[in-house]
Design a protein that fits this description.
The complex is a heterodimer of chains A (572) and B (260).
Chain A: E1 7-16, E2 24-31, E3 36-40, H1 47-54, H2 57-61, E4 64-72, E5 75-76, H3 82-85, E6 89-92, H4 105-115, H5 120-134, H6 149-161, E7 167-171, H7 179-194, E8 199-203, H8 207-210, E9 215-220, E10 223-229, H9 230-234, H10 237-242, H11 249-256, H12 266-275, H13 282-297, E11 302-312, E12 318-328, E13 332-336, H14 343-350, E14 358-363, E15 366-367, H15 372-376, E16 380-383, H16 396-406, H17 411-424, H18 440-452, E17 458-462, H19 470-485, E18 489-493, H20 497-503, E19 506-511, E20 514-520, H21 521-525, H22 528-533, H23 540-547, H24 555-561
Parallel strand pairs in A: 3-8, 3-9, 6-7, 7-8, 13-18, 13-19, 16-17, 17-18
Antiparallel strand pairs in A: 1-2, 1-4, 4-5, 9-10, 11-12, 11-14, 14-15, 19-20
Helix pairs in contact in A: 4-5, 4-6, 5-6, 6-7, 11-24, 12-23, 16-17, 16-18, 17-18
Chain B: H1 12-15, H2 18-33, H3 42-55, H4 58-63, H5 65-81, E1 83-85, E2 88-90, E3 93-94, H6 95-121, H7 124-133, H8 138-167, H9 177-182, H10 185-208, H11 227-248, E4 257-259
Antiparallel strand pairs in B: 1-4, 2-3
The chains are: A alpha/beta (572), B mainly alpha (260).
């Protein structure tokens, strides 16, 4: 006999107060006890709204119009306060800074049980149990603010588990994390989904993580597009792409090559590749590599040169240690490494925000020390990670015109520059819109445009794709690529390995303030061991092709490399 | 970036019960307010310095040293300008007004030190618990501690935002006063917006962990008054009584002196 589902959602409609559109439009969903359900969809699809209905944040915290029902273990969320629901439903948010509020790790875990009047001895037991579970015993006396992003998110999970919830809802728990921290959180998720007593509902953009889910629900425009087992959903490559969700590279490749059965994992992919009798043509592969090397060699004018660059912060932390590198005019390069590896410290030297404490850095052959941030800013544009850290104007026009106005350019030229910058980011015609009402990706574009208006030769982007969905990430990077083709030199820092695989010409890998690996993207991704040493991992598809013997970066590239004589044999 | 004010140490001051520290804080506050003559402020100054040295809170005072220097200079200057003594010293300064300005400056510095000692040696949670044990409702205590907690967060985001705007060509160090004030708009609006965003999530996280679910809340931390607490409290109370008596008998005032 099937047990009663943990969560029942019946014909759920919800509209935020002051909005015309319904954010949720008739969701029907049941989640079984012990199940791991992954919720995926593009930005603004209503995923977070749905998550907030499970523990009653909707309709109690966010006021609005709710129709339909959400039942958690038979409790109707309308009848209970959020605090009362907290015993049943744990909630982990994307922003790991804002959801922690205690001054030490133990007290953070104690906070939930304290609210429910749990005995002190029992609280102590739960602190021990849950810190051990997420592997944070060693830092139990530290203030949460001194932990890394990944540790903070693990602490958030532990603090919620301490309430012994039946349902755990996680709203993009890994979006802001670097690859190694992501992996740590995923490992905990995997551990959690083994537990029969815990139902997991996770919103996630990372399709590789979806491989661990039991079922996947796809959401768009507040409606449930499709729900099915992990395999049923991930095989629908076209549907995923259409919804703005990144399909896995392996099924995408086999779909493109015309196979009927689509493998998902590397092992399955290797078997199918063999069974279909596919072969990689050495000649075609060599041609691709040769073209690539030629393109890299065509950029010869040095733009940024670091010679034994060192930076030690006032508190004694050595963030950069003997870095020597050169970036040439017209290149598009990626800088990767885990948080704290020195990436951001390095790029802040490029526009003079930081000055070296040892060694030398030259921009256009002149030491940055002799130029200063104000002068360098005209040549080197820097887009910070969070657009909300720079947007302040009431209209997009004013925001983008900020720099040209500071430089006291004539009004005509300002208009011209703003127009060109907005054109470049695809926001032409939005001059009078309010930047604060735009989506994250829209605000990100405004931030890029406002830097472009200074007409820099070099554009530095710090994690331009974080917090965007796959379709937005792609269009952001396509835009950046166009700028590169028009002559701008592009330097981007990122945690998204697929972005590196598809868009970077050269890659620099950092670990503990040292440059440990550099080369063409293909060369770098062929050094799997060194990457793992820097706590990075090539995308699943690149690992797959490496197992085939050649480092091939994208499904399209692999199609282009296939031995033509073997084509047409498959379809079994 | 270090933005925490609480210092995780194990000094005599740290080991005192939060209630003791809150009461000492209030008592010293009263003692500091009494006298106009800097000589009469020496005893309380001595007590505050002892606490500063013992607790290690000097480090935090160093972090705000520029603010302290500005306050000291402007307070010394203003109190001399806006008061009149009877014994001329030089220029616009008289002996009495100089004494008074020193006393007022000491008052400001001691009050800041007094507060800094409290939050450098007391965890947020202990402070809340102390306030509650002294009779404040839980929600009020929690609100006070949350606002204290917000300060380092805002400082940290202000740093990032100022870097972002400087990269866009904002030059904070040039222009006249009005221009400079206007240049803070690109800093303050993003700080404001990002603070609102994070407090919103903070509120959600708070409720999601059962904040206010029941009246009978457990406190995992335990407060315990030890002999040292009673000794320190007794001393502090006697000290303030002595100061009040001295004040009542008219000591520590300046004669031949008018404030505008």
């Amino acid at each position: 006999m099937a047990a009663e589902p943990a969560v029942i959602i019946k014909d759920l409609h919800y509209r935020y107060r002051g909005q015309k559109e319904y954010a949720l439009q008739g969701i029907n969903l049941e989640v079984a006890r012990g199940e791991f359900l992954m919720i995926m969809g593009p930005s603004e699809a209503g995923k977070s709204t749905l998550a907030a209905t499970i523990n009653g944040l909707i309709p109690h915290f966010h006021k609005g119009k709710l129709q339909g029902e959400v039942l958690v273990l038979g409790r109707d969320t309308k009848q209970y306060t959020v605090a009362q629901m907290a015993e049943l439903v744990g909630m982990v948010f994307q922003d790991f800074e804002a959801q922690l509020f205690s001054t030490n790790v133990e007290l953070e875990v104690a906070f939930g049980p304290e609210n429910f009047g749990v005995e002190r001895e029992e609280i102590k037991r739960r602190i021990d149990e849950n810190l051990a579970y997420v592997g944070l015993e060693a830092v139990r006396r530290r203030p949460p603010s001194t932990l890394s992003g990944g540790q903070k998110q693990k602490l958030a999970i532990a603090s919620v588990l301490a309430l012994h919830p039946t349902v755990l809802v996680m709203d993009e728990p890994t979006t802001d994390l670097d690859p190694i921290s992501k992996l740590g959180v995923f490992q905990i998720t995997d551990q959690l989904c083994e537990r029969e007593d815990l139902t997991l509902m996770v919103i996630e953009h990372d399709t590789e993580e979806a491989l661990h889910a039991d079922r996947i629900a796809l959401i768009k425009d507040g409606k449930l597009v499709s729900v099915g087992t992990m395999r049923e959903i991930l095989e629908q490559v076209d549907l995923l792409e259409e919804l703005g969700i990144m399909p896995l590279g392996i099924p995408k490749f086999f779909k493109m090559s015309g196979a009927r059965e689509l493998p998902l994992t590397i092992e399955e992919g290797l078997q199918s590749f063999q069974r279909l009798g596919l072969r990689i043509s050495q000649e075609k592969f060599d041609r691709i590599v040769a073209e690539e090397n030629q393109r890299i060699a065509s950029h010869t004018q040095p733009l940024i040169q670091c010679i034994n660059l060192e930076h030690t912060y006032p508190n004694g932390v050595k963030a950069l240690d003997g870095v020597s590198l050169q970036i040439n005019q017209g290149e598009m390069v990626a800088i990767i490494g885990q948080n704290g590896s020195g990436k951001t410290t390095l790029v802040k030297h490029f526009n003079g925000l930081l000055m070296p404490t040892g060694g030398e850095i030259l921009v256009n052959g002149i030491p940055t020390r002799q130029q200063g941030v104000f002068k360098l800013g005209q040549k080197v544009g820097y887009v910070f990670q969070n657009p909300d850290h720079q947007i302040f104007s009431e209209t997009i026009f004013d925001e983008v015109a900020f720099n040209p106005r500071l430089r006291k350019l004539p009004e005509e030229e300002i208009k011209q520059r703003v127009h060109e910058a907005l054109e470049a980011v695809g926001l032409a015609g939005c001059e009078q819109d309010d930047p604060f009402t735009m989506t994250k990706s829209g605000r990100q574009r405004v931030a890029v445009a406002s830097v472009l208006a200074a007409q820099p030769e070099v554009l530095i982007l710090d994690e331009p794709t974080t917090g965007l969905d796959y379709a937005e990430q792609r269009s952001m990077m396509e835009m950046v690529k166009r700028l590169n083709e028009q002559g701008s030199t592009i330097i981007f820092v990122t945690h998204h390995m697929w972005v590196v695989a598809e868009y970077a010409q050269r890659v620099f890998v950092f670990k503990d303030g040292k440059l440990i690996l550099q080369g063409s993207t293909r060369q770098v991704f062929s050094h799997g061991d060194e990457l793992r040493e820097a706590f990075l991992r090539p995308p699943q598809f690149v690992e797959f092709t490496s197992r085939l013997g050649k480092t091939i970066l994208t499904p399209q590239e692999l199609i282009n490399c296939l031995d033509a004589t073997e084509q047409g044999k498959h379809g079994i | 970036m270090e933005s925490e004010v609480y210092l995780d140490r194990n000094t005599f001051m740290h080991r005192l019960d939060a209630r003791t520290k809150i009461i000492i804080f209030l008592l010293i506050f009263v003692a500091v307010l009494l006298f106009d003559d800097p000589l009469w402020m020496l005893p309380v100054t001595f007590l505050v310095i002892v606490q500063l040295l013992n607790s290690g809170a000097l480090i935090n005072m160093r972090r705000i040293r520029y603010v302290l220097i500005v306050l000291t200079i402007s307070s010394l200057l203003l109190w001399n300008l806006f008061s009149q003594g009877s014994t001329p010293l030089f220029w616009f300064i008289e002996v009495e007004s100089l004494k008074f300005s020193i006393a007022r400056t000491l008052l400001i510095l001691l009050m800041i030190s007094d507060g800094m000692i409290l939050i450098s040696t007391t965890r947020n949670e202990e402070l809340v618990l102390g306030l509650i044990r002294l009779g404040l409702p839980y929600r009020v205590g929690f609100a006070i501690s949350t606002s204290l907690r917000l300060v380092p967060t805002i400082v940290a985001s202000l740093q990032t935002i100022s870097q972002a705007q400087r990269s866009r060509g904002l030059d904070l160090d040039s222009g006249n006063l009005l221009e400079r004030i206007r240049k803070f708009v690109p800093l303050l609006i993003p700080v404001f917006i990002s603070t609102i965003r994070s407090t919103n999530i903070f509120g959600m996280a708070l409720e999601s962990k059962g904040f206010g679910a029941r009246e009978d809340r457990t406190f995992y931390l335990e407060l315990k008054m030890r002999p040292a607490d009673y000794a320190v409290l007794t001393f502090a109370i006697l000290f303030v009584i002595a100061s009040l008596l001295a004040y009542a008998f008219g000591y520590g005032r300046l004669s031949g002196f008018t404030r505008f």
